[in-house]
Amino acid sequence: MNELIDHIKARFPIYDVIESQPGQIFVSLEASKLIPMITSLKTNHGFTVLVIFTAVDWIEDDKFQITYVLNNPKEKQDLGIRVFIHRDDATMESIHHLWKHAATFQRELKEMFGIDFPGSPGVDDPFLLEGWDNIPPMRRDFDTKKYSEETYFPRPGRETNDPATFMKQTLYPDD
Amino acid sequence: MFPEADEQGMPVLDLDSQKYIKIWQGPNHPGVTGNMSLELTISGDEIMHAKTHVGYLHRGFEKLFERRRYIQCFPTCIRMCVPEPDINEYNLARGTELLAGIDVPPMADWIRMLVLEMARLQVLLRMVPGQAGTIGLGLGAQWGLYYRELILDRFEELTGGRIYHMYILPGGVRGLLPDGFKDRLEDNLKKVESFMKDIDRLIYSNAVFKKRTKGIGIIPNDWIEPYGITGPVARAAGYQTDIRLDYPYLFYNQLEFDYNLEHESDVFARFRVRRKDVDTTVDLLRQIMAKMPDKGDFKAETPNVLHWKVPKGETIVRCESSRGEYTFYMVADGSMYPRRINLRGPSYTHAVAVLEKLLINANISDVSPIMVSLATCPPEIER
User: What ipTM describes this predicted complex?
Assistant: First the structure.
């Protein structure tokens, strides 16, 4: 695995190389270099399986981390590649030409994080949410509680009590 | 060429030409697994185009994880797969342990392995006899449910719950096996073995079943890696994959078993692989009971779970479920709450990319057997 990392390091500007488990390494890379590197890993180094393709919202740094975990089934190795893109301009190159099921992941990321993958088949089709008109729900600034309070009205006849006051009144009404 | 294709190779399906009809199979349909639906464009009884629609079960689990402490994620994560919840518990517990650097006592790992194999057996007891229900042979499914209940009895005895157990926790498990548990489980395994002989006669020797399942839904070998196909579906195409053997976790490297392979890659081959999986699981359960220690520490010391700050890091954890590779990607940011937990289950590709492609030119009556042979499970797509 270390030989592979040295080999990649000579060709691509990877940084933050971390071995999280034996046979499992995570590296970071500039977003513009992703497609050449991932193509090279697939065609020359046997990383033929795409296991994980997801995003993490680092809202405090104003960035999205997109993680691609590739697997080499012959050598039993996993390589996680992290790329960081700005939240305001969330666009990433598509990898649907490399893996057939990548289009499904990209469709979900477009819907859930608002990350666009131009050219990916059906990327604008709704995946889980039809008629969604709010900010993408997996972004950390999407407030689920506020959304449900605004969207779903409480049924009439139900009242809300503060737990501490309510229990005090129920248990010790004379105090 | 029928139907005609456009420049991008997509079929041109003009519904006004009266050659095609669009019908929906699901979300409420006896032949559909779970809450998903298929939008089928058919000509006669041949499928021209298929599109999977999911979203009927979306409960935002991955979003909820971000607002919950690690221990609070357990009651949520098990609901991501109703028939086999223990794989979620194991992956989440193992991921937390890896991020926090906790070593689990050997006894806990043996019990975890026992629980995971019991979970596999109970789901196979529902799946293997039930698969013939898709072509109208529903008897096996009814028989199978009884034998599944026997395994659920053991779960109830061990964990207190029948379906959702929450038995595997970060650091270990919640307790040791009760007295006489192994004998009662062995008794159940004998009954299961004798029942599987009935299933062989009822289903696998049935001429109608063979005629309906052989030669349909063939997945070519060169689809496996580009589509990310895993588990029994890949093994039915002769592709050697089993996370228990490829990336041994727990003590699977101390057990003796092999890949259950078939080569025809049709619906019957996938059903055959699952049938062999039942025998393997029964055998593994016996090996585990014979090799596991009787007593020992079953839980490592962990910090107070309500104030547990897991160090910053990321990891992936995978295990073999009854349907294929089940992977968690976990990112911790050093706080008490996980930054991101992402699940990638086998259905994510099987039910969307693979199924949409596999159904083209299939007969409409073969939709259910093909779908069930892929063991699609919508909750793990929607999370």
Answer: 0.88
